[in-house]
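Schema walkthrough. Field components (list of strings):
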Amino acid sequence: MLLPPTSLAAATDISIRLNLSWVDYLMLIVYFGVVISIGFIARSRVKTSMDFFLSGRSMPAWITGLAFVSANLGATEILGMAANGAQIGVATLHYYLVGAVPAMVFLGLVMMPFYYGSKVRSIPEFMLRRFGKAPHLVNSLAFAISNVLIAGINLYAMAIVIEAMLGWPEWVAIIVSAAFVLVYITLGGLSSAIYNEVMQFFVIIAGLVPLTIVGLHRVGGWGGLKDAFAKTGSVKHLSAWAGTAIGNVSNPIGANWLAIVLGLGFVLGFGYWTTNFTEVQRAFSAKNMSAARRTPLVAAFPKLFIPFIVVVPGLIGAAVLGNQLAAQGDATHLSYNDVIPKLIQMYLPEGVLGVAVTGLLASFMAGMAANVSSFNTVFTYDIWQRYIKPKMSDAHYLRVGRYVTIVGVLIGIATAFIAAGAGNIMTYMQTLFSFFNAPLFAVFILGLLWKRMTPTAALWSYLAGIAAPTVVWVSYLNNPKLFATGTAETLYGAIISFVTVIVVGVIISTFTKPKDVSQLKGLVYGVGKIDMSMDAVASDTAWYRSPALLGTVALILCVVLYLPFL
Amino acid sequence: MADTTPSSTPGAMTDAERRALVASTRRFDLRRLLGGLFLLYGIICTILGVVHNASDMKQTGGIAINLWAGIGMIVLALLFFLWDRLAPVPEEDIIGSAEQVEYEKAVGEAREVG
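Field assembly_structure (string):
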């Protein structure tokens, strides 16, 4: 009944179609039954708009923390990082240990007190409090528009994979998944999204761990993997920092160590994890200051170990599938993105197969739900309430939130269908949106550290910070010789964006009028005091709940985990 | 912040209502849902692992992966149940968030609070 995937015939098969039995489908159906039930359970607790958009600020840290890591653990992320693992090897660890964990620690220790302490309901609202209306409007619109379109682009990416794995037509995959997201977010709002993210987190792990174990066994353990790479001459697959010396760059990313640390780690990583409301919203729903600060710190620990079940399968794929892999799939080649589905097909029998497929589908949907649930919050609180219909009852905003969710999902579906017809435009838009986080981080960090930074400076430096990487990117498209790889372009583009914001921000601030210091309490470092024990409960003081300790341990692990791969 | 978060409708709930609210919140604790889901998945995989042992071994090259994954998921499920039992959601958390409806409405309407 099952394919004989280890035979030579199957090894040259480039299809990733999975052979699901009724038991596997049963597991899938049970999972999505629970998803909808969670929607109904969460709905009974939604009494106010704050319940709908921020779970009434009532969640414990373990739930918000797992949701925080899970909102980023969409299937596109999983497949993409495994693809990186197959293509560039353990250097993919940079995306976790340089690009994510330090930023999460920074968010928990440094930025969260300002965010949670100022009681803002969204990231754009922090912009409003610190810098006023003009930058707030730009930030809100940029976030709302980009997020709903990204939801659609991810929906399309999902449809392609589902079609290849399960044989469902793309349009069926798009409609069915969007319908699930629509139902459970409209019912239960952020609580639904968060509970499902936590559930998805455990299911995707339950699917990927068996895959990694069987895969490693099949290649003869870690030693077998090493031998395989030694034979093919791609020894660099197992050394993360080889060829990153300044002036002597020969690594597959095409950037030296400083550009990796500053570009990926500082600007892109900090930009994404500390200012992307889709992520930070999870922490805003925590029940008190301590739980909010611990949210990204709790998330950092799973993040440290996820590469072992995502990147390692990528490495196994490179060793086992080797010359069948190519950047773009064609008639005789698999694309790098197909590594995980292909290994699932080869190694997982009925049963664990169902768990793995459920995990992948769940993570596709959780990713889209995270976009939708942050979009509806920003649209309702920051655009509708602030500029269109202020001073309405709370019930009004709750109702608007639900309608906006429906509209958001519909726009997402439309975007997915447009993407199906004009994929290139969508790729360009996605690249464009990726320019939004780095300058926002630069504006925030300057604004947090320097009380003299003015609202005018914030607006124009933010816009300049979006324009600068766009210019760099367009130049790169016209002259690909400018950078070694697309990834290198992204790193340098981000650094240029950050520097642009700081320079423009400082220059304009010197001859425009800053806000009065009395309005900056709790929004700027050293101005006013932030109540760190806000809503504290007795158990928050347990030593293992100390944010400083958790953050320090996470950072130490970042270094330790590199040691085997130097 | 306890003094700036008015429990807007003090005494609005009777004892019976409080008990019902606590019971219903705890009944659907996320840890119980996770426990239930993984118990079911674990049982399914374990049974398959026993029934299809030979074909599993052939595909995985000698690891009874369904058996191991099944047992692992059952253990995980039991841990979730145990955790839920040892550390149920504190009563004051449940009552507290139910009683601050007026405060939440004020925040939702972007009015100055506290």
